[in-house]
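FIELD: query
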Amino acid sequence: MKKIHFIAAFLFSFAVTNLIAQSAAVTWPLTSNPNPNTPTGNLQASAQTIGAGSASPFMILYPQQPYSSSGQSLVTGYQGPGWPAGPVNYTRYMQFDINPTAGNNFTAQFISFKYRDNPQVPTNFNLLKAEVWYAIDNNWNSSVQLSTSPLDYLNTAEQTFSKSINVQVLNGQTFQ
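FIELD: result
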């Protein structure tokens, strides 16, 4: 069984653009549930959503202990010695949504998260790949890929994805 282990909070940091510019931030610790911590600034954030995929094997939270002090684990079920091979399946995803509070806009400036492969057998370092995308149109028609090459979950060493961006999110839009 192959698990993807998300070690720390997803941290999205924003500069809010309203009458009085201020900093804002939100984190999803993913240590006890899918909910974000209370955002600072003029933001609203929703619980993490997980797309299981369009066909078996479906991605799920690792059922025995989906959350722990070091983050959450995701699996696609037992597939032999690793993650299932095959084409990219964009219906298998994790999503984090952020909205400006009513009457406000914000500019997304920074995204950062930590991740690692957590194989059941410590010597089973099978390469897993992931991509990082965002959209603000709520239907992903105008999505933008942030990772120019796939993130490799190569072994148990913790890795960090960090990206500076400059994305304006207007009142009524959602940064996802």
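FIELD: remark
Confidence is low (pLDDT under 50) at residues 1-19.
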